[in-house]
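Researcher: Re-running this chain for the archive, since the previous output was lost when a drive failed. Same request as before.
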Amino acid sequence: MKSNWKYSLLIVFSIFIFNQASAQLGIKAGYNLSSLNYFADGDTNFNEEFISGYQLGLVYRLGLGDKISFQPEVAYYTNGGNSQFFNTAVERTYQNVKANGLINYNLIGNNDGLSLQLTGGIFGGYAVSAEVGLDGMEKDKVNFDEDRLRRTNVGYIFGAGIKFNSFIFSVRGSIGTSELLMFQTDGMGSAFDANVKSREFSFIGIYLF
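Model: Regenerated structure tokens:
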């Protein structure tokens, strides 16, 4: 009896959710400003600078009632960062495939019309390739195994946007929690350990079919 009661409740809950849901597919394009933050012993300053990149991908948006929507995404991203290592400028760029799992909450309006929304969620990425260049010289391809670079990256996303019918314009920030690179170095007579994590701001346009 207890199992039948649980199955009945699950069916009723599922029917309620799908009755409240409206699904749409879409495409997105965006402009990225990204950096690679170096966390080192003694808070060593590596003068991290943002570099430009872009993203192109697909969106699935599932509206749940008037205020909430679930929005998974998959896209191709380019990002990276500039840093200064004791008079040597280093620029790293990555080409990634990323998947986002986002929840939108409408502060103003609803899912069917004009709305102002907050966005939050998580991401997971895989670096297809990467390059590194020194002092503005031509970049060389990175060998992830030999250079001890990590291909996978996960982290958090937060942001806000405006939805108007089939269009969404949003600004997002992302904080990577994975250590993409760990190394030891000896500069200015002192040795220290460091690791690298990603940071990114994005300006995104989405069109829903």
